[in-house]
Amino acid sequence: RHIEHYTGGKFRSHELDICYPVAWGKEGIEARLASLCAEATDAVRSGFNILIVSDRQVDREHMAIPALLATSAIHQHLVERGLRTSTGLVVETGSAREVHHFALLAGYGAEAIHPYLAMETLAEMAKGLSGDLSPEKAIKNFVKAIGKGLQKVMSKMGISTYMSYTGSQIFEAIGLNHELIDKYFKGTSSNVGGIGVFEVAEEALRMHHAAFGDDPVLADMLEAGGEYAYRVRGEKHMWTPDSIAKLQHATRTGPEKGYQTYKEYANLINDQSKRLMTLRGLFEFKIDPNKAIPLDEVEPAKEIVKRFATGAMSLGSISTEAHATLAIAMNRIGGKSNTGEGGEDPNRYVNELKGIPIKKGETLASILG
Fold first, then answer.
1. What is the largest CA-CA distance in the chain?
2. What is the pLDDT of residues 49-93, one digit of tens each?
């Protein structure tokens, strides 16, 4: 802010407040986005070459538009008017805390990001930790981790510089309808469809009420949320204590009972029709009993499994037991197991010979081909 005082007026910054009155409700989000885009246009034409998109003014009476939505809307608007190259976008938000959050903001136009709430939280937490971790060191570690994470994300797409990644929009949206995409995330692929801008605003409004609500229990603390670990009444997870217990029980009991328990575990993971955790959980097979094909007319399962193949996982990437189990399973059904670049334990070359059914009169060369 006030960068013009330190650059002799060569750089001038203008703040775009992405908050709006809670009283406007979810319907007020489009009006506020339109006014932000108009304000950004006027600011650029007035000579401001840095726009600060900020949600720092959020309070009990004012809710924030999601930073990604506001950033992309302003970025797209300036691109359409040929003004985007005349200014830089700096995003000051309390919502950015993970690598993916930073990648999204950068991918939709942010040249710089200031995660003020994450930094303030780290500084406060560092004060209560034992050891010599200072608030400054904690923030430095966070910035370094985010930077390394972004480098990994960019390298996967063959991008080597942050400026090349900025505004690249190399994402696919899941769960957003085409009206929202076409208006605020133009050019983004969205093959599934989903919610619109008002539903996004409704979710933001719920988060605002959770932060500034009147619940005395949450007056001085936040809900656990359960985003990173399973919590009762928290974010839903596919890996629940019940599903993990069934998998462990299945592997520790005999073949008959163990397989039945495994089927119960598999049903918990595969059937997401009630919890709506996966896209496949929203689909049903179209079955017509009158058009059923007799089993003896289709390829038997023992032949189908021969085309199964495991992923390329080196011995060092997973445990020795898991690596060997995958290989043995594929050998038994006639499928293919991939050792990965790191190969496998040479001792297993010898051990595997014990499982080869060498018949009388056959040679090792004839068995191995």
1. 93
2. 999 999 999 999 999 999 999 999 999 999 999 999 999 999 999
135, 113 in Cβ contact below 8 A? no
Tell me the DSSP string of 255-299: HHHHHHHHHHHHHHHH--TTT--SSGGG------GGGPPPGGGS-
What element of type H or E holds 189? none
* Residue pointed to by tokens 């009006």: 31
Strands (E), the chain: 13-17, 19-21, 50-54, 62-64, 88-92, 112-114, 175-176, 194-195
Give the residue with greater pLDDT, 128 vs 134: 134
Note the CATH number of domain 3-218: 3.20.20.70
Contact 261, 250 (CB under 8 A): yes
Cross-strand pairs, 53: 16, 91
- Measured in whole angstroms, the distance separating CA 317 from the mean position of its chain's CA atoms is 22
pTM: 0.79
Residue 338 — φ and ψ, nearest 5°?
-105, 120
Beta-carbon contacts of residue 291 (< 8 Å; ≥ 6 apart): none
Identity at 218, one-letter amino acid code = L
Confirm if 198 and 29 have CB atoms less than 8 A apart: yes
Q: What is the mean pLDDT of the segment spanning 310-328?
A: 83
pLDDT tens per residue across span 205-257: 999 998 888 878 777 777 777 888 888 878 888 888 999 999 999 989 888 88
CA–CA gap between residue 84 and residue 49 (Å, rounded): 10
User: Which residue ranges make up each domain of the chain?
Assistant: 3-218, 233-284, 290-369
